3-hydroxyacyl-CoA dehydrogenase
Amino acid sequence: MSGIQKVVVAGGGVLGSQIAFQSAYTGHDVTIWLRSEGSIGRCRPKLDMLRGAYHEAIEDMRGAKGEDDPAWCAGISDFEGFDADACDRRVDQAYESLVLELDLAKAVRDADLVVECMAEVADQKSAFFSKLAPLMPQKTIVVTNSSSLLPSQFTKVVGRPDRYLALHFANSIWKHNVAEVMVQDQTSQDSFAAVTEFARSIRMIPLPVKKEKAGYLLNSQLIPWLLSGLDLYANGISDPRSIDIAWTMGTGAPKGPFQVFDTVGLTTAYNIVEQYQRVPGIATPLLRKMMLPYNFKGMERVLKEYIDAGKLGRSAGEGFYKYDKNGNVVE
Amino acid sequence: MSGIQKVVVAGGGVLGSQIAFQSAYTGHDVTIWLRSEGSIGRCRPKLDMLRGAYHEAIEDMRGAKGEDDPAWCAGISDFEGFDADACDRRVDQAYESLVLELDLAKAVRDADLVVECMAEVADQKSAFFSKLAPLMPQKTIVVTNSSSLLPSQFTKVVGRPDRYLALHFANSIWKHNVAEVMVQDQTSQDSFAAVTEFARSIRMIPLPVKKEKAGYLLNSQLIPWLLSGLDLYANGISDPRSIDIAWTMGTGAPKGPFQVFDTVGLTTAYNIVEQYQRVPGIATPLLRKMMLPYNFKGMERVLKEYIDAGKLGRSAGEGFYKYDKNGNVVE
């Protein structure tokens, strides 16, 4: 047992709503704190959608051959002892049990854990943490789900350095059930252990990150790889298709770097290239130095050409590849 | 048509024998030049083994559902019009047709293409090329299959800069049918086109590398990724299993960096770390600079600990993971 039962998720965006839903699904008391009636109006359809997505996933899991089956969602159930009807009931119970709250003081009054899922804007996070700090009871642990901002940036304003760390999720957490648990310098072992146990209790595989690291474990590997592929193209060494084939045929991975760029969108790709050069605090000094010798100007030029031509990636019908209306590559 | 019919493969090692076999299988006149009777004795069993491997692959292909089927070997046949019996006959014809030759002058007398597959030792390659240079007719194109040495290192000794480039294969080329075609500064467009067409004629997907690049397309992506994973462990940020899970769950790839290290062997991993720091000429200046801020000392320490303990990777039964006698992970 993690000792964490009462969970407050601050922010009802894509991941906030998923984390709230998954926590409720696994039997926690969950409140979603939202800033305004407008936020409530945007959050409710996400929860409706999630209820549907969980039910659909459970339906697909009925036909699965094992945990390795692509349809299997380890966030929903173990393969052994899978009871689809019981899972369906838990989904509806989770949906009914979620509390949406505008009053932050009321929301966090007895919270064991606050999961910060606000927009990735440093000022907004700071403002939220300063408002939050005086309202929490002594026991509350605070985690941030930020992908791109280092938790240490907010330690002071959170005001309880030993009970503050990062808990970072993938998208579609009922299926991609990993959670990176990352400390900042002052996080206590107890808080780290409690959050790790909490991650397990909501059916995530906890991945420990024992020192603060920009990019956690996944992006720390993903970005050097993506940029190494883009660098080959920007320097005229080869073309996107050939670079992708070299990777997919050479490693058995489903996608090469340009297929990933098309999936996440070229605007995001451009932002990654920009951020890793400029914004202080996003990359560790090590990561920034490592990236600098890349031909960033060339990468920006390539991406900008595509973006200016409206080739924004798969969702726009064209990026480095062309897609039909079902999102399959044509040509 | 590539205009390349008479092929000489210099060296009968793992890749030399595969390239020779595949070229013969696709109807080329192939001679394998070997340095000594001892080399012939080591090469013959490889060719016997390849004949068996091709026949087995063809047998497995009979049950395949399409080109995406894992059993399909695109180096052996297209899916449409696949005729297993005809393929089997071509395998036996290829095997019978291969000429093993000790006399280099005789071997290359009328060669359209010489494929250099000697050991990855610069002095040995230089010695071979100086011996080869005066023996070839005007028309012969020379390619090197070197993975780790840049072709430009040998341009002078090869002596025909316009007809000299690199052609780099993956292992098990009948299945992993890609070939990186890489120029050096002085390679002519005609030679590049002829070798690209030759690659196609032996059923490889040619991947153009239009400027000389250490690591070609695959290793240029693979090494930054592998080192980014190892760096996380060397710096105490997380453990091999968690770093691997972050990658495989996050990208859908079959293996994380430590699973790849265990597969290629930790001694090879150690050599990669060593080479990218020290040996001049292996990495481009760009790549060397890019790598330097990594914690190489830490990486070496980690790998050396495992190697000294006999944990050399999967083939040794233990590396970063433990394996049973079938090569499956235990624990």
